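Support request, priority: normal
Reporter: lab tech (M.K.)
Component: structure prediction queue

Hi team, I submitted a job for SEC14-like protein 1 isoform X1 from Balaenoptera acutorostrata yesterday, and the status page still shows it as pending. I've pasted the exact input below so you can check whether something in the sequence is tripping the parser. The sequence length should be 715 residues. Please let me know if I need to resubmit or if it's stuck on your end.
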Amino acid sequence: MVQKYQSPVRVYKHPFELIMAAYERRFPTCPLIPMFVDSDTVNEFRSEDGAIHVVERRCKLDIDAPRLLKKIAGVDYVYFIQKNSLNSRERTLHIEARNETFSNRVIINEHCCYSVHPENEDWTCFEQSASLDIKSFFGFESTVEKIAMKQYTSNIKKGKEIIEYYLRQLEEEGITFVPRWTPPSLAPSSEMSSSCKKPAVPLAVVVPDPALKEGLSSEPLSTPSGAPEPAVGTPDDKLDADYIKRYLGDLTPLQESCLIRLRQWLQETHKGKIPKDEHILRFLRARDFNIDKARETMCQSLTWRKQHQVDYILDTWQPPQVLQDYYAGGWHHHDKDGRPLYVLRLGQMDTKGLVRALGEEALLRYVLSINEEGLRRCEENTKVFGRPISSWTCLVDLEGLNMRHLWRPGVKALLRTIEVVEANYPETLGRLLILRAPRVFPVLWTLVSPFIDDNTRRKFLIYAGNDYQGPGGLLDYIDKEIIPDFLSGECMCEVPEGGLVPKSLYRTAEELENEDLKLWTETIYQSASVFKGAPHEILIQIVDASSVITWDFDVCKGDIVFNIYHSKRSPQPPKKDSLGAHSITSPGGNNVQLIDRIWQLGRDYSMVESPLICKEGESVQGSHVTRWPGFYILQWKFHSMPACAATSLPRMDDMLASLQVSSHKCKVMYYTEVIGSEDFRGSMTSLESSHSGFSQLSAATTSSSQSHSSSMISR
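Reply from support: The job had stalled in the queue. We restarted it manually and it finished. Here are the results:
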């Protein structure tokens, strides 16, 4: 398995030229890096005007590895080839490194870049990325991988310290400024050298402003050495190391890399709908920074949020009066760590009455609104306290808990709520304080604990009776001034006291069922299932030419091909495909086919857009400006992988897979709209932000302002 690393942007608040002077002092050896024994310059190139300087070195490293492993490998030192390409005109340094030792068994590639900060030309940015691929290593592949990752991460941490050390050394020598490169009046001849001399640091000189401007505005030179072009990022698409520490907390280099790589993947597949970094980090933490697992669960959560418009629940949904009067829970200041504090008097709450009066769905929606409010409060507290706060503390008072709370429908509603919250709000619970647990509590705990994640269970603190008042109790986590009055504290708590819900407010099972259906069908999106050999198709009739068809869909499962067709005549009335050959129904979405099997492409209908292959987890938005009136068919088709060309005989795996129809099922969630061309101001601008964005989870929702004559698809 290939291990990859991507760093955040690290910012030095010093000019590029001064950073380069400090960087050059690392060679030929650096005492601050014990494993870096020595280096030899094997090739060097300098352009005639001195703007381009390329140095290739052979570096000798003493890897901290077990002596037995070194003896088996037959080496004491490991050699790397490092190529530094300095472009003084563009003010960039690109560093490429690869291993020379065991290059046929282990492949290590690293790329680093120093460049000017895009918003402050007197600051310098640094980024690095690397990959490790161990093909074979005498049966010690896993051991070598661990050693390599350990050595690499330890050196990453030292990188900024080393530069700052040499900056201080330069300052002690009186060098606080290095002039920028300017075109020489007389171009010196180029020189090739293989010497090992350490380049001298330029002395501080005064450069006239006109010459400085001329040097900055001149055209860039080509690089005979093949040095890569500079790639300077913007603050919008890259993460700064200082920002991570301030708003996300202290992360290890590998954790930072996981966050950046997952964020980049989301930028590529979910244009304009990127969740906030705190939310991405929560999913990574919940999956122990396994990118594949975090990506899968987060995509499912984003689809769920979009389908049920959870992002707008605080602005569009008003809790029923019954909840406001009898739900004994509410927000109450914060704990000693600055986390928002939520108080729930579960023992005083009539769960049976609330379920009978409101139904399971209304209670679930209310809990979701509490979690959304918690996310907001975490952001506010992060700003107030000046440190990252990404979770809240929940205080649950169980005084009054009895067998009435173990009513089966109530427990069922509780379990479903736990399941939904665990899947969509991971790592939001910082601590759970359970107070005054009665004897019946172990019964309830036995029922709900299997549905709670192990990491979440470790955050539970349970106190029986008045134990919370003793050592290790409530005062360790909450300031005395804000302990609620019902817990013998000094602070008046405005959380409703709960009580029995009047039976006059109870509703029949039929009323609750209709209400539940209404709550969760309030969505503009439709779901559909796509099977191999059974695409899903929808019909759009266009009366006026130059109308605009827009779409927004998410691929929830499998890979699909998206097509748009035009026909002058209407297809037969749609028939839901039952897939009788497989006897499969599709409870998660319908499957409608419109194009008759006897129709021929080019005669009965035509393709108006090139097919678009969409991978699982991708979010696709686009538009098509119609040229003719008639009938347009949007089709989502199962994407089959190309067959193996090595043999014409079917493989056993393929034969077994063909018997498993579930492996040939895809799911999409889509929304379409037709607009007049006079109302169209660019792709997807007709769709309100509530239709396609994540307002609460996205720091900024962007949409394309371009309008194509035929179509535009952004992923």
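Confidence is low (pLDDT under 50) at residues 186-235, 576-588, 643-662, 681-715. The two ends are 28 Å apart (CA to CA). Let us know if anything else looks off. Ticket resolved.
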